[in-house]
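Incident log, structure service

09:12 report received: a user says their structure output differs between two submissions of the same chain.
09:20 pulled the input from the user's history:
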Amino acid sequence: MNRRNALTALGAVGLLSLTFSQSIRAQTYPTRPVRIVVPFPPGGTIDNTTRLLAAELAKAWNQNAVVENRPGAATVIAVDSVAKSPPDGHVLAIVTGTFTVNESLMPNLPYDSRRDLRPIVHVAKSDHVLVVHPSVAADDLRQFVSLVKSNPDKYTFASFGNGSSAHLAGESLNMLAGLDMTHVPYKGQAPALADVIGGQVHAIFANLPETLPQIRAGKVKPIGMAAAQRSVHAPDIPTLAEQGVTGLESSSWSGLMAPAGTPDLIIERINADVNRALELRSLQDAFAKSGIVALGGTPEAFGDFLNAEMSRQAAVIRKAGIKPG
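09:34 re-ran on a clean worker, output below:
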């Protein structure tokens, strides 16, 4: 055997050995409790959704799946802690729309959004609904657009924070409909929605689950769903697209990611286990009670979604001139 053939043979043996080693690791994974880091305080929609999923994963893995809340710095603290964790699948990150926004909005991120983490699976979403205070003289999108255009500089919209999905949805409506609403940022949806209910701010793109009781109580008026189709939880609310404004879809979504370098077979194992959990009727029903839709899919599909969202949000941020808050 000449030297080239010998090197080729050694390389093949090394590759087979590595593949075999990764296969064994995937089959025995996890070997200890798995931490799923959530970038928000306990009790919110994303936290509750993650805990429901973690309970099912713990059954599948015969290991604890521990939800760790690490809020702060617009999700950067939590995501960075996972990006810098050992790439063995035992520390995972829940990411949301803020993750795709931060790449364009925050110039000095301590991690690279595309290089330092690997997509695993798209977990769930809650579509946004545009609602207004009852005093706003509009019952649909056409009336609302006409009213705002007729009163420049008067109307305001609230958001969960600067650069949040609700902020970008409001700026997108401004651009698509030719409006000039003023953005009023809050630290979370609860205080933002409270001020819309109180009449301090005129409108908000809010999560449907938390807003639906306020709609039913007459405390806010629905204008339209920022979604591809009507919600099964509120079928009487038309989408914005049905009312003439296309290309504006907004939701609070979550997905699971791992540190870069996590072996393919472990990514595939986690993806398969999460997909099986998301297909459980019991989990879907638990999600549905809060207006949450289970998603699932491949790592590649979630990666494509993330890339598309980063590009889309970057365009809105650039055109609207949004700066870090």
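09:41 both user submissions now match this output. Likely a transient worker issue. Closing.
09:42 reviewer note: Strands lie at 34-38, 65-69, 91-95, 117-132, 156-159, 182-185, 203-207, 221-225, 251-259, 293-294. DSSP finds eleven helices and ten strands in the chain.
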